[in-house]
Design goal:
single chain; mainly alpha; two-stranded antiparallel sheet; 4 helices; disordered N terminus
Length: 121
């Protein structure tokens, strides 16, 4: 069970982005993975690049749905991951997490927490 912290921004997991150990047996649940994910994003520039990249990716997804030009979905993925990888390699100095589904879910959970004010930008 993951322990959450209540702060002035609300209840969030790993509120200070403390590095967490990788489970040697793999993560069984998203709730177990998310604090680890946050610890892999302790650098504020990395987090901001993720936020900007994910936001642009969502805008491009919306644009694809509105215009019917589905190439925008592909472009959205490329640029979103470009922002994220730049953040990891140049600022965080680590490799992106290798849990594709959980990482994708965590990107958007983090984005939601930023947009709702539970986490600072």
């Amino acid at each position: 069970m993951v322990k959450s912290t209540v702060g002035k921004r609300g209840t969030v997991a790993n509120h200070n982005y403390t590095k967490k150990s990788k489970d040697p047996n793999g993560f069984k649940t998203f709730e177990d993975f998310y604090p680890f994910y946050l610890g892999e994003h302790s650098n504020i520039t990395n987090r901001r690049l993720h936020t900007v990249g994910s936001t642009i990716g969502l805008i491009l997804l919306l644009l694809a749905l509105i215009t019917g030009k589905y190439i925008f979905i592909f472009i959205g993925f490329i640029q979103a991951y470009g922002f994220a990888w730049c953040g990891h390699f140049y600022f965080e100095k680590n490799k992106p997490a290798t849990y594709p589904l959980y990482s994708f879910m965590a990107d958007f959970k983090h984005l939601f927490e930023v947009y709702t004010g539970k986490r600072s930008f």
